[in-house]
Amino acid sequence: STYEGVKEKPDTETNIYSVTVEAAVKEGNLQDDLNSMGLLMRRMKMPRVAVALSEGDDTASGQLLRMLKDKGFLVVDTGSREDVEQFKGLMTMSDGRRSDLMKKYGAEVVILGSARGQAGSNVGQSNMISYQANIALKALKTDSKEVLATATGSGTAVHVGDAGLAQALKLATTVAGNDLLRQITKQWSKE
């Protein structure tokens, strides 16, 4: 990166010294630059994001929520599992109805999807069990139902207990989540 000062202007009344610079900067990966992400989020008017996944437990949702928060997204809490019970059939609703429901929570973007995992067989003659998981995600704007991004991911883990399933789900979610966030930030940087 290179830069040079173009104009300097002291303002003694407000005690502010303004400097205008001309800079040549190297273009980088927007999704990896948290400062750029913060600027992008402000430019997009800090959209709030809700997550509604069909899954056996909250492993994939929890991982995705952590990823969103780490990237500076404002995450809307859709309530505890008990509160969400009132929305039985959420994942069988049309995308439009689900999006409308999430909009009631104040979300401008909703991430919908499903996460599934299962135990495989024992590895060799050991007590170690192989686990596989798959996840499919779709990000929609709640106002227009426009699809911002879609992503899938898979993960595998080997463990002696059920913790292997959680590890496989986290890996699958990380793969799909990173791809989804990359697509969303790319789309928003064009808007």
Describe the structure in your own words.
- This protein has 191 residues and is of the alpha/beta class.
- Helices cover 34% and strands 36% of the residues.
- The chain contains five helices and seven strands; from the N terminus they run E-E-H-E-H-E-H-H-E-E-E-H.
- The strands form two sheets. A five-stranded mixed beta sheet has the order 4-3-5-6-7, sandwiched between helices.
- Strand 3, helix 2 (59-70) and strand 4 form a beta-alpha-beta unit.
- Helix 2 runs parallel beside helix 5 (163-190).
- The protein is elongated.
Can you summarize this structure?
The protein is an alpha/beta fold. 34% of the residues lie in helices and 36% in strands. The strands form 2 sheets. Strands 4-3-5-6-7 form a 5-stranded mixed sheet, with helices on both faces. It has a two-stranded antiparallel ribbon with strand order 1-2.
Let me know the number of strands: 7
The largest β sheet comes out as: 5 strands, mixed
Outline, from the CA principal axes? Answer: elongated
* Percentage beta strand: 35-45%
Structural class: alpha/beta
Walk me through the topology.
Layout: E1 2-11, E2 16-24, H1 34-43, E3 48-54, H2 59-70, E4 74-75, H3 81-84, H4 95-104, E5 109-122, E6 129-141, E7 147-159, H5 163-190
Parallel strand pairs: 3-4, 3-5
Antiparallel strand pairs: 1-2, 5-6, 6-7
